[in-house]
Design goal:
This protein is mainly β. The protein has two domains: 79 residues, Aspartate carbamoyltransferase regulatory subunit, N-terminal domain (Alpha-Beta Plaits); 37 residues, no CATH class. Helices cover 12% and strands 36% of the residues. The strands form two sheets. A five-stranded antiparallel sheet has the order 2-3-1-4-5, with helices on one face. Strands 6-7-8 form a three-stranded antiparallel sheet, with no helix packed on it. Strand 4 and strand 5 form a beta hairpin. The longest helix is centred in the first third of the chain and has 8 residues. The termini are far apart.
């Protein structure tokens, strides 16, 4: 298998094996006009198996929200073929339209134009609650 290096782009690394397609769909990578490589079940000394996503362009996407999907991932920003920045996305204090409230009595169930807003209530437990009805996110 041959996947070229990136000159300018983003590498999302240390994704739990099997989670890469969820991130691919969340970021809408299928709509990008650039090359995107999804590597699944790559061997990792630390994790055993992991997934990797390489994006051959700098994109404007909610990368910090990836901390909610998989808290162990690493985001590498490559510029001119050199690693410019490497970080773990922090859990955001607020998630907007990323997850949906499952409470059938929540106002977001009847008012479709309302955004699905979840607020961080317990960072240690990674617990988010609906802004409107305080239902715990799954």
């Amino acid at each position: 298998m041959n996947i070229d290096s990136i000159k300018n782009g983003i590498v999302i690394d240390h994704i739990k094996a099997g989670k890469s397609m969820e991130i691919y769909r969340f970021l809408g990578l299928d709509t990008l006009p650039c090359a995107v490589a999804v590597i699944q079940n790559a061997t990792s000394r630390r994790m055993g198996k992991k997934d990797i996503i390489k994006i051959d362009s700098i994109i404007d996407a909610p990368l910090n929200a990836l901390g909610f999907i998989d808290p162990d991932i690493t985001i590498d920003v490559i510029t001119d073929g050199v690693l410019k920045e490497k970080y773990h996305p922090e859990l955001p204090d607020e998630l907007v339209d990323i997850i949906k409230c499952h409470n059938p009595r929540c106002i977001t169930s009847t008012e479709q134009e309302l955004s699905q807003v979840f607020i961080m209530t317990d960072k240690a437990e990674r617990c988010y609650r609906c802004k409107y009805c305080e239902t715990k996110a799954k």
